[in-house]
Design brief:
The protein is mainly α and 432 residues long. Helices cover 61% and strands 3% of the residues. Bound molecules: alpha-fluoro-carboxymethyldethia coenzyme a complex.
């Protein structure tokens, strides 16, 4: 942990100087324009945020600190064939590929922080089982804010330049503890409520899998992949942006990310993975184990006729099949012999893009990460799809908390754009 802090301190000094130079030399330089369309259509394509941890290209997809996911898989310290989630976290925090001993240092640090205060476990156990798992997760993460280091620093005479240190402390606690919150929610909502303790010797993925109740190394391997794939998706997506926005008012990472989790719980965003599996299971029931392309077409037409979106397809930024979805398919090819539901996922990929192109509305007719993630979990026996977005939330804590450390490190101010009434927008358009 000490070495992580030292490395960050050095990098933060350098990056603060970069910000100062940028502002001094080019603070007034115009880099983009905003159209009226962008203002009424969800600010698509508007470059207006600083986010250090990852970038998203419409055609090549996500890069974590400049590395594609296949590059992460090849170069980050792994367990078996997938990167350790801890090495992904190190990469997002520092921009460096950790050495195996640095990844181990972070693994051990996070494992040592993995338990929850008893009163938080009691509070989670008292929640109604019927409360959606994402609401429970948001409550659990919010409640971690009690006694957080950031508030303590803020209320003491800590200098603003040092806020990042307490933000880092809280970020590590969030990533360490969120798997247990998720597992308690799962065991209470869908199993007998009993849960094993986190182990000091496991990585984040195995600890999560074991606390959920699995003892299958292949499932832990899938969770390693899952935690990597969902860890970050640049700063403009709904959950990352929400976390950043709330944090910009100097809320600690627990309350900021709890807000981000509520953002993730929308069906057009993270909840899509739940919606995809619900939709696929219904399709499977209708068409059976060996459907034809026409069977799939008929079902998709039904969804479109109802005016609903096809879940797991489309993206606000990507204009190609989501590389994360392609990695899911590759995982299926390498690890799973024959699974009827995953076969249906593949058949959908053959059929749906052309249908969406024909419909002519979606700017991106291709699958996103949610199109395949749920069917992989289903293969290993995790079938309660209302829980799926919780796993997304466990993973996204890695990216959102790393970003929040950098928000404080770069001394980013409170976010405060200006909204327009329709009338003022119409006037501005006339004057332009
Ligand atoms: N099925 C049917 N219609 C679709 C569609 C889909 N999968 N995706 C987009 N469209 C429609 C939109 O509803 C919109 O219709 P409208 O003009 O009548 O309002 C039109 O196509 C243009 O939308 P577009 O600009 O392509 O997409 P947006 O940037 O507005 O929205 C999302 C992007 C992802 C929200 C959209 O594609 C969608 O609803 N997809 C299904 C839900 C989903 O899978 N979400 C997960 C996304 C992602 F991975 C994540 O953030 O987690």
């Amino acid at each position: 942990f000490q070495s992580l802090r030292v490395i960050l301190e050095e990098k933060i000094t350098v990056n603060r100087e970069r910000v100062a130079k940028l502002r001094r030399d080019n603070g007034e330089t115009v880099i983009d324009q905003i159209t009226a369309d962008q203002i009424v259509k969800g600010m698509r394509g508007m470059r207006a945020l600083v986010n250090e941890t990852s970038t998203l290209d419409p055609y090549s997809g996500i890069k974590f600190r400049g590395l594609t996911i296949p590059e992460c898989q090849a170069r980050l310290p792994k367990k078996h064939n997938q990167p350790l989630p801890e090495s992904v976290y190190w990469l997002l925090l520092t921009g460096d590929i950790p050495t195996p001993s640095q990844a181990e240092e972070l693994r051990s640090e996070l494992a040592s922080r993995a338990s929850l205060p008893q009163h938080i476990e009691d509070m989670l156990n008292s929640l109604p089982k019927s409360l959606h798992p994402m609401v429970q997760l948001s409550i659990g993460v919010n409640s971690l804010c009690e006694g957080n280091q950031f508030d303590k620093a803020f209320k003491s005479d800590c200098k603003r330049a040092d806020y990042w240190k307490s933000a880092l402390e809280d970020a590590l606690n969030l990533v360490a503890k969120i798997p247990r919150i998720a597992a308690i929610i799962y065991r209470n909502a869908f199993k007998d409520g009993k849960i094993c303790a986190p182990s000091q010797s496991c990585d984040l993925a195995e600890n999560l899998g074991r606390m959920l109740g699995w003892d299958d190394p292949n499932f832990f391997e899938l969770l390693r992949l899952y935690l990597t794939l969902h860890s970050d998706h640049e700063g403009g997506n709904v959950s990352a942006h929400t976390t950043h926005l709330v944090g910009s008012g100097l809320c600690d990472v627990f309350r900021s990310y709890s807000s981000g989790l509520n953002a993730l719980a929308g069906p057009l965003h993270g909840l899509a993975n739940q919606e995809v599996l619900k939709w696929l299971i219904e399709l499977w029931k209708i068409v059976g184990d060996n459907p034809t392309e026409d069977d799939i077409r008929k079902y998709v037409e039904g969804t479109m006729k109802k005016g609903q979106v096809v879940p797991g397809y489309g993206h606000a930024v990507l204009r190609v099949p989501d590389p994360r979805f392609l990695i899911e398919l590759e995982y299926k090819k390498n690890y799973i012999q024959n699974d009827p539901l995953l076969n249906i996922v593949e058949l959908c990929y053959k059929v749906i893009p052309d249908m969406l192109k024909q419909q002519g509305k979606a700017k991106n007719p291709y699958p996103n990460v949610d199109a395949g993630s749920g069917a992989l979990l289903h293969h290993y026996g995790l079938r309660e799809y209302e829980f799926f977005t919780v796993l997304f939330g466990v993973s996204r804590a890695i990216g959102c908390s790393a970003s929040q450390v950098w928000d404080r490190a770069l001394l980013l101010p409170i976010e405060r754009p200006i909204s327009l009434t329709l009338e003022s927008l119409e006037e501005l358009v006339q004057q332009a």
